[in-house]
Amino acid sequence: MLQGARSGVPSAPPPELPGPPGRLALGHVRTLRTGVGDFVSGRDTATVGESVPGSGSEPGGGRGGRGEGRRETGRTAERTPRPRREEVHKVSALSARGRLQGRPGEPGMLACRKPGMLACRKPGLRPPLLLLLPLLGPLGPCSPDTPAAAAPADDAAELEFFTERPLHLVSPAFLSFTIDANLATDPRFFTFLGSSKLRTLARGLAPAYLRFGGNKGDFLIFDPKKEPAFEERSYWLSQSNQDICKSGSIPSDVEEKLRLEWPFQEQVLLREQYQKKFTNSTYSKHSVDMLYTFASCSGLNLIFGVNALLRTTDMHWDSSNAQLLLDYCSSKNYNISWELGNEPNSFQRKAGIFINGRQLGEDFIEFRKLLGKSAFKNAKLYGPDIGQPRRNTVKMLKSYYVNGRIATKEDFLNPDILDTFISSVQKTLRIVEKIRPLKKVWLGETSSAFGGGAPFLSNTFAAGFMWLDKLGLSARMGIEVVMRQVLFGAGNYHLVDGNFEPLPDYWLSLLFKKLVGNKVLMASVKGPDRSKLRVYLHCTNTKHPRYKEGDLTLYALNLHNVTKHLELPHHLFNKQVDKYLIKPSGPDGLLSKSVQLNDQILKMVDEQTLPALTEKPLHPGSSLGMPPFSYGFFVIRNAKIAACI
């Protein structure tokens, strides 16, 4: 759900952001207005489901930051005519030793021996970053020790940080993900969750919530007497270690067979999704065991979506099947949170059933009573979620930026499309603030394009712009948890492909997890670059062994077709910065399914081992270079920010 403005830390006034919807889940809400009537859901948190197009305009304007105090040009050399404005060009005046060269009789001044050059600075002052030179003659260094010219001023972007106090606190599981319930259409494919490689990848993103739900969830029926599929039975028989998390992977012949059949099953699932014609399927206790074991062994908290379309003749929710599921999970001492239904506002379209708000509220009350009588009396209950916002409703909002069938590469790089995320989130936050002001809001299901994602786009490097920007905006606006659709499954928007190979958004998510902490700060770009040069700021994740309290993590996206140089605020100018720059690898460019981190291709070492995510330390005082169409993270070490301590 989308989080309300309160998160346990005094909140600075949120920045005004321009800003379609994401999917919201309202969990633990006592009495909310939804559609026609009231509904009661759980106790303490509201969740928001899926998200819409993301946005990312930064507030702020003008020039300033660290550049203001370092741009003095000093005294002009004698007989040097004042250059016309259009003749001025900025170049670096720093020597290779990081200081200006003095001239005889005036230490600390730069000797410009060519006519028309400008003297630089008086002794005792910090060396200036830039000099102004008239474009009247050959451009060159003032002395043999002066390096080549820096990037033109148009490629420099000054940053402004607001670090007095956090804007929000997000959950340690802020970046979470889903497995679509359609995987249970044929329970044989649940066996994929026994893959040690897939578990290694999931474990890398912990702590996180794993939401099992989606449209198919309202067409799944639990049958505790159903026999396991051959593939499921083969997996369980092959596990000899009593500690299931240390047991072996899927038998190789079973895994190979399933992988060969998966592309055909994937087409079945996508066809059902496109046509919105769902049929009931049953799943066994063995499937529940597989799902729970996967979550538990990967360090994930499972949220299980229960079928809400089972109805009595008078249209009340038939809770008998949910009771069977609760009884079984209680007998196994499973620790699970719950969700009732998926997009109840779409029930009429996909099942010919209309449920008003009052009835839905009664259904949630009934489910809460069931939980209260079981081992799950303290479990959290989330929902309802809806696909699009309606007037006077509170919801779990699902949203995607574009239609996967018609999306283009340009859509993924369009700041206007990214900005569409803001308005839908703001609308939801206003509703939650009005009705249940202390409730948290989650984004319960989100990705780049609906309809299973955009082929050859949603699983490439280009999709990372939407994903990273949505994470940044969500945190800045106070969303407590964002759930990515999906870790693995049918379609094109997954983090891991059908061979369990991590895709670009997986590596981006892994870096986010390792580097970004849960205290959200504010950063902005000064000047006109705010739309295509998008920046976000958090306290650094201090669980990373290299970093400590007080450090800052800046993450940024460059949507320009030229390199941009980010300039830190003056008080952080001389701090050590570690760069983690992500670029596509291979000839496919933005459409590559492989990425490199600081020029090193990212790939798993083996099925049990993720690669080291190695930083590139920058020289203190360096600008933060971002090549065209790139994104990355910069950790500012020893920043000693009080809000991060």
How many structurally independent domains? Answer: 2
Oligomer: single chain
Q: Which stretches are low in confidence, meaning pLDDT under 50 for 5 or more residues running? A: 1-149, 390-396
Number of strands: 30
Strand residue percentage: 15-25%
Strand count, sense and barrel status of the largest sheet are: 12 strands, mixed
CATH architecture classification name of the largest domain: Alpha-Beta Barrel
Superfamily (CATH H level) name of the largest domain: Glycosidases
Distance between the termini: 28 Å
Helix content percent band: 10-25%
Helical segment count: 12
| Name of the top-level CATH class of the largest domain | Alpha Beta
* Broad structural category: alpha/beta
What do we call the CATH topology of the largest domain?
A: TIM Barrel
Organism: Bos indicus x Bos taurus (Hybrid cattle)
GO molecular function: hydrolase activity, acting on glycosyl bonds
Subcellular location: Secreted
Main location: secreted
